[in-house]
Specification:
- The protein has 254 residues and is an alpha/beta fold.
- The protein has one domain (8-251): TIM Barrel.
- The chain contains twelve helices and eight strands.
- An eight-stranded parallel barrel has the order 1-2-3-4-5-6-7-8, surrounded by five helices.
- β2 (40-44), α2 (50-56) and β3 (62-66) form a beta-alpha-beta unit.
- α5 (109-121) packs across α7 and α11 runs parallel beside α12 (243-253).
- It binds 2-phosphoglycolic acid.
- 2-phosphoglycolic acid binds at residues 12, 170, 175-176, 214-217, 235-239.
């Protein structure tokens, strides 16, 4: 597929997989994806499996991501994990501001903005999630929700940091529901998001920044979504829990 930006596929395993199950999954992924070099591939296991998965992917092109991290570097924050701790396992990416964390942990754009800065200071590449709920879409509020989230999360970054940030457009109504945005809906939102990056930064940054789509991505819909000009990869939840479906999403997209 002809796009300047390298596609990036990330598997968000959420709160799934014991260490043994995680190792089985990456073992199969390594086999299924052994010959795929033209895209970036990331797996985001739960914290408890990072160390073992990290060792297991050393001899592959799969990279490691975490699902969240603290905005603080160390200290009295019970239960939290700092960027430096993730780096110990050669973690390269971190998902920030997922809608489930916004909903259940009440994460705000201001908090996510702090986490983004902490990730960049540790040279972790953030995958920052934005997206509207069904009620917001039906009320015609999609663009204004995206604008608020983008401004609130990304405005404090330098141009260099923005280029190393991945935006994941994840309409909340499509996550885990089996309802995917149509390719046209995804493209419209992605083009809008890229326009917001132009406004906040500049054309060059916006041309380089990668915007993933997330929300019920499957092998059967990946190709059409990825063929849209502003869709640069996928953040995959449910379908990343099985090697075959995650690998097929990637293979069907290239
Ligand atoms: P889903 O999840 O693929 O299961 O819809 C996507 C996500 O939450 O990142």
């Amino acid at each position: 597929m002809d796009k300047d930006r390298k596609l990036i596929f990330a598997g968000n395993w959420k709160m799934n997989k014991t260490v043994a199950e995680a190792l089985d999954l990456v073992h199969d992924l390594k086999l299924d994806l052994a010959n795929v070099r033209e895209v970036d591939i990331v797996v985001c296991p739960p914290f408890t499996a990072l160390a073992e998965v990290s060792k297991s992917i050393l001899d592959s092109s799969i990279r490691l991501g975490a699902q969240d991290m603290s905005e603080h570097n160390f200290g009295a924050y019970t239960g939290e994990i700092a960027a430096g701790m993730l780096k110990e396992f050669s973690t390269r990416y971190v998902i920030l501001g997922h809608s489930e964390r916004r909903q259940y942990q009440k994460e705000t754009d201001a908090l996510i903005a702090q986490k983004l800065l902490a990730a960049h200071s540790a040279s972790l590449k953030p995958i920052v999630c934005v997206g509207e709920t069904l009620a917001e879409r039906e009320a015609g509020g999609t663009n204004s929700v995206l604008e608020t989230q983008v401004n609130g999360c990304l405005a404090g970054l330098s141009k260099e940091q923005m280029e190393e940030t991945i935006i994941a457009y994840e309409p909340v109504w499509a996550i885990g529901t089996g309802k995917t945005a149509t390719a046209a809906q995804a493209q419209e939102a992605h083009a809008y998001l890229r326009g917001l990056v132009v406004e906040l930064f500049d054309e060059t940054v916006a041309r380089r920044v990668r915007i993933q789509y997330g929300g019920s991505v499957k092998p059967s819909n990946a190709r059409e979504l990825m063929s849209q000009p502003d869709v640069d990869g996928a953040l995959v939840g449910g379908a990343s829990l099985e090697a075959r479906s995650f690998a097929d999403i990637i293979k069907n997209s290239i």
